[in-house]
Amino acid sequence: MKRSESDRLFEHAQTVIPGGVNSPVRAFRSVGLKPLFITKAQGAYIHDADGNAYLDYVGSWGPMILGHAHPAVVEAVRQAAGKGLSYGAPTEAEILLAEKVISAYPSVEMIRMVNSGTEATMSAVRVARAYTGRDKIIKFTGHYHGHADYLLVKAGSGATTLGIPNSAGVPQSFSEHTLLCEFNDFDTIIQITQEEYPGEIACIILEPFAGNMGFVPPVQDFLKKLRALCDREGIILIFDEVMTGFRVAKGGAQEVFSVIPDMTTFGKIIGGGMPVGAYGGKKEIMSMVAPLGSVYQAGTLSGNPLAMAAGLATLNELFKPGMYDELARTTGRLTEGIRTIAQKTGTPMTVDHCGSMFGFFFSGSPIHSYEQALACDTARFNRFFAKMLEEEIYLAPSAFEAGFVSLAHTTEDIDKTLSAFENILRFMAYQ
Ligand code: PMP
Q1: 4-69+321-429, what's its fold?
Q2: Is the pTM of this model over 0.95?
Q3: Which family does the entry's similarity section mention (predicted)?
């Protein structure tokens, strides 16, 4: 397969952009390869600079649930662009998108648009701190909430609950209020909230389905127990649905588990591929935000008309009858197929999905925690990833990312993927 043009662009990019990319995971470093440079995308396929077409399971890391360049979305953006790119003043489209999101999320009574998931989580935590008058927050190891200083904290090897920044450039003091817990380990959360820091925790922020350590669902009743605990302790429960919102179900993970968070963060799908994030929740909490309240949060391009148009057009299509059933059916065909192939080829694998979000680990036992995820066979994943790419199937270039199916993925696309899976796993079984 020809990659010379991508390689040339990558060489060039590295002279002016750190690592040649504008977001680290794109660099393919963890899988030991060089990134593909993309020239266009249509439906379920992305095309690289060498003219190769790949069946895409990344979908721009989540937003492209309709498939790439969906005609309704492209047309909506085209029309909006003809009327000016940004006004820095309110528009009706912002109300329409706010209402659309609110209609699917009963927990959200008011919502503020921002420009990325990072901004959404950062702002939600600020509001939670202001609302409770407390400083400390709990996050889970392996969960990603964007790159705000105090959220860039994970556990070191000896799982510590005190925040140690794991990016250079973050002063220790910036993350001293970040407490770490293990996803799906309710006992530690009880201990931290009730014994170690009673009355000090402003919020618990989590990915209700983890998607940034591979795809890891919550264990039975974990979210329900968190909800009850937060009620008891006066802690704001923030579901970071940047990835899961409108993805695992129309109403996100909160609909799947019937658990109502106090605040929710969004991104990805609600922008239809444009830079959008949002945070929302109960009116009483969101009334803290300026200019209504004393929590400052702003954005020159927030609610940008092109982004609102793309988001609205995407949700309009998604809300048509049967769309979520179709997404779940297609994705179920994929994960069922992978499971069968793993059994047939004797490959230890764990596979799961909810709606159109899926993931697999090269591990024979179920994965519930970050540590278990880290212990899976990444070397095998890396070999597998490279082979899939040769078969023109584009998975996320890391063992610790979820995959996404779009409405543009056909049964034939899934079967083509499964056939590549089977050939490669058979081949690897003899390595
Ligand atoms: N939260 C979650 C759950 C995410 O998956 C991401 C990004 N993948 C973010 C927040 C940050 O979003 P952004 O990259 O738009 O800043």
Answers
A1: Aspartate Aminotransferase, domain 1 (3.90.1150)
A2: yes
A3: Belongs to the class-III pyridoxal-phosphate-dependent aminotransferase family. HemL subfamily. Belongs to the DnaX/STICHEL family.
Query: 212, 216, 254: which to mutate for ligand 1, most atoms within 8 A of CB?
Result: 212
Quickly tell me which residue has 């999101």 as its tokens: 101
Catalytic site residue 144?
A: yes
Q: How far apart are CA 9 and CA 54, in angstroms?
A: 18
Pocket of ligand 1 (CB under 6 A): 61, 116-118, 121, 144-146, 207, 211-212, 240, 242-243, 267, 277
* Angle at alpha carbon of residue 421, lines to 419 and 423, rounded to 5°: 70
pLDDT tens digits, residue range 297-311?
999 999 999 999 999
Picking from 224, 56, 69, 238, the residue whose alpha carbon sits closest to that of residue 146 is: 238
Question: Residue 23 CA: which ligand 1 atom is closest?
Answer: 14
Q: What is the interface pTM, i.e. ipTM, of the complex?
A: 0.99
Task: Compute, in angstroms, the gap from residue 25 CA to the centroid of ligand 1.
Answer: 12
Fold held by 71-318: Aspartate Aminotransferase; domain 2 (3.40.640)
Question: Order of strands, edge to edge, in the sheet holding 350-354?
Answer: 350-354, 357-361, 403-404
Ligand 1 binding pocket mutation candidate from 243, 264, 276 (most atoms within 8 A of CB): 243
Ligand 1 atom with the shortest distance to the CA of 267: 15
Residue of 145, 151, 241, 246 best suited for mutating to test ligand 1, as the one with most atoms within 8 Å of CB: 145
Q: Where are the domains of the chain?
A: 4-69+321-429, 71-318
- Which of 116, 119, 128 lies closest to 288 in space, CA to CA? 128
Closest-CA residue, ligand 1 atom 5, reads 243
3-class secondary-structure state, position 3: coil
pLDDT tens-digit map of 354-382? 999 999 999 999 999 999 999 999 999 99
Any catalytic annotation for residue 282?
Answer: no
268 a catalytic residue: yes
Q: How far is CA 247 from CA 52, 207, 259, 268, 311, in A?
A: 28, 13, 16, 10, 14
pLDDT at 164 over 70: no
